[in-house]
C-alpha cells in the first residue's frame, strides 16, 4: 500500500502526487493514457470519486488533458509543469521549515548553508 | 439525483426520541457512510429508509415513494444487519436460492465463491454459524444481491480484522463494476473512510454533517503549543476540542479555515499543526461536551 493514511495530505492529493512521480520518472510518458479513476480505485482501494478528484487535480494543472470518450492523457509539457510545481510548493515549504528549525536552534544562515553543502557532497559521494 | 429524501423526520419510541427533525438527501450510486455514536439514531434511520419502521413525523421517500409497506421499494433494496433471520433447518445454499427469487440481480456464483473464500461450507445451517461467520454470511448476501440500494447496518460486527478488510475490499471491487447506492453504518470510520464517497454524521438524532469524505480530511486542524500563544490565534475560530495536556501546554482542534499566511504565523510562534484523523474529527464533532473523559476525573 503506497498511501499513508496518517499523513496530513488527503488521499486524493497523495494519489495525484504518486501519478506526478510516475510522470516525472518517465514510467508514464507524454501523450500516453493515464490510469482511469476506476483503475486507481482498484489499485489504491479507494472510492472512484476520490481517485477522480486526484485526476482532476492534475487536469487543473494541465498535467493531463481530457480526450472526450477516451480518457485522460499526459500532456506534452507534463514533466516540466510537475518539476516547476514541486519546486515552487514542496521545496519552498521544506526550506521554510528548515529555516524555522534553524532559527529555533540558533543556527546561523552561514552554518545552515554549510550544512546544505555538506549534504550535497554526501549525496554526490554516494552516487 | 437523490434517491433517498428525508425531510424533517422524527421517531419517538415511548419516551425516547431516536430521531429529531432529521433531513438528508442521498444521491444515487454513491457509497455513503453513516457515522455516529452509540444511540445516535443510525439504526433507526436505516430502518426507516428500509421501510421497516414508520417515522413519527416528517416525510421519507426512497426511489420517490414512501418506503413503508411498499413492494416496489422493498424489491429494490436490501437491508443487512446481524439480526437477519432464516429458517433454521435450511442450508446456506438453500437460503441463497431463496434470495435469488427476490432479487433479480442476485449472483449465486459470486455468493458461493465468497463463501468458499471465507471457508464457510454451503451445507452448514444458519444456526451453526459463529457470530463472525454469521456476519460474513449476511455481508455476502448484501454483496451478491447487487440491489440498487444496499444498506449495511454495522456489517462487520464480530468479524476478525482480516475478514473485515477483505469484505470492504470486495465491496469496493464489486461497486466499481456494478455501481449502486450503498449506505454503510459503522463505528470504525478509519476502516471504511477510503471506500466512502460521502459521510453522513449523525448526533442525537439530527444531522451533524453531510459532506464528501475528502473534505472531512481537511475540515479540522490540530494545534499544539503554549496556551497563551495559542489563544491569540483562536479569535473567531470554531473550537471543537481542547485538552491541556501539560502545564501551559494545550492541544486544540479547530475548524480549518486558516490562510497560508496565518499558518506561517503559527509556525513562527512555535505552534505545531497537525492533521486530525477523520475518525477523531467525528468523535469531537459528536461529543456531548468540549472536554474529554479526563474531565470526569477532574473534580476541581
Explain what the structure shows.
The complex is a heterodimer of chains A (127) and B (300). With 127 residues, chain A is mainly α. Chain A has two domains: 68 residues, Winged helix-like DNA-binding domain superfamily/Winged helix DNA-binding domain (Arc Repressor Mutant, subunit A, Orthogonal Bundle), CATH 1.10.10; 48 residues. In chain A, 64% of the residues lie in helices and 6% in strands. Chain A is built from five helices and two strands; from the N terminus they run αααββαα. A two-stranded antiparallel ribbon of chain A has the order 1-2. In chain A, β1 and β2 form a beta hairpin. Chain A starts with 10 loop residues before the first helix and ends with a helix. The model of chain A has no long low-confidence stretch (mean pLDDT 89). Chain B is α/β, with parallel strands linked by helices. Chain B is built from twelve helices and 13 strands. In chain B, the strands form three sheets. In chain B, strands 5-6-7-3-8-9 form a six-stranded mixed sheet, sandwiched between helices. Chain B has a four-stranded antiparallel sheet with strand order 11-12-10-13, sandwiched between helices. Chain B has a three-stranded antiparallel sheet with strand order 2-1-4, with helices on one face. In chain B, 37% of the residues are buried. The mean pLDDT of chain B is 91.
Amino acid at each position: 500500500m503506497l498511501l499513508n493514511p496518517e499523513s496530513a495530505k488527503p488521499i486524493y492529493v497523495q494519489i495525484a502526487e504518486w501519478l506526478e512521480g510516475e510522470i516525472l520518472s518517465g514510467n508514464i510518458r507524454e501523450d500516453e493514457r493515464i490510469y482511469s479513476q476506476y483503475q486507481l480505485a482498484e489499485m489504491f482501494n479507494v472510492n472512484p470519486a476520490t481517485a477522480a478528484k486526484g485526476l482532476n487535480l492534475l487536469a487543473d494543472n494541465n498535467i493531463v488533458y481530457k480526450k472526450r470518450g477516451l480518457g485522460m492523457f499526459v500532456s506534452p509539457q507534463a514533466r516540466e509543469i510537475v518539476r516547476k510545481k514541486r519546486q515552487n510548493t514542496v521545496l519552498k515549504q521544506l526550506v521554510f521549515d528548515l529555516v524555522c528549525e534553524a532559527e529555533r536552534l540558533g543556527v546561523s544562515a552561514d552554518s545552515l548553508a554549510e550544512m546544505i553543502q555538506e549534504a550535497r557532497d554526501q549525496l554526490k559521494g554516494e552516487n | 439525483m437523490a434517491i433517498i429524501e428525508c425531510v424533517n423526520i422524527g421517531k419517538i419510541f415511548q419516551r425516547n426520541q431516536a430521531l429529531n427533525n432529521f433531513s438528508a438527501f442521498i444521491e444515487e450510486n454513491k457509497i455513503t457512510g453513516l457515522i455516529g455514536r452509540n444511540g445516535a439514531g443510525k439504526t433507526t434511520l436505516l430502518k426507516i429508509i428500509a421501510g421497516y419502521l414508520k417515522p413519527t413525523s416528517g416525510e421519507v421517500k426512497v426511489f420517490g415513494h414512501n418506503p413503508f409497506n411498499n413492494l416496489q421499494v422493498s424489491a429494490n433494496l436490501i437491508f443487512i444487519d446481524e439480526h437477519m433471520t432464516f429458517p433454521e433447518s435450511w442450508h446456506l445454499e438453500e437460503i441463497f436460492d431463496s434470495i435469488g427469487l427476490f432479487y433479480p440481480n442476485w449472483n449465486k456464483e459470486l455468493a458461493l465463491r465468497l463463501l468458499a473464500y471465507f471457508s464457510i461450507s454451503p451445507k452448514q445451517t444458519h444456526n451453526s454459524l459463529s457470530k463472525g461467520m454469521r456476519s460474513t454470511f449476511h455481508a455476502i448476501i448484501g454483496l451478491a444481491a447487487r440491489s440498487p440500494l444496499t444498506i449495511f447496518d454495522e456489517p462487520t460486527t464480530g468479524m476478525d480484522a482480516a475478514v473485515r478488510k477483505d469484505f470492504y475490499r470486495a465491496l469496493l471491487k464489486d461497486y466499481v463494476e456494478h455501481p449502486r447506492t450503498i449506505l454503510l453504518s459503522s463505528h470504525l470510520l478509519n476502516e471504511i473512510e477510503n471506500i466512502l464517497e460521502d459521510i453522513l454524521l449523525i448526533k442525537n438524532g439530527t444531522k451533524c454533517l453531510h459532506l464528501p469524505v475528502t473534505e472531512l480530511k481537511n475540515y479540522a486542524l490540530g494545534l499544539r503549543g503554549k496556551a497563551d500563544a495559542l489563544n491569540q490565534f483562536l479569535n473567531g475560530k470554531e473550537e471543537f476540542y481542547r485538552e491541556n495536556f501539560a502545564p501551559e501546554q494545550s492541544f486544540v482542534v479547530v475548524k480549518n479555515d486558516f490562510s497560508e499566511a496565518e499558518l506561517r504565523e503559527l509556525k513562527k510562534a512555535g505552534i505545531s499543526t497537525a492533521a486530525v484523523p477523520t475518525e477523531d474529527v467525528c468523535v469531537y464533532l459528536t461529543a456531548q461536551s468540549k472536554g474529554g473523559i479526563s474531565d470526569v476525573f477532574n473534580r476541581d
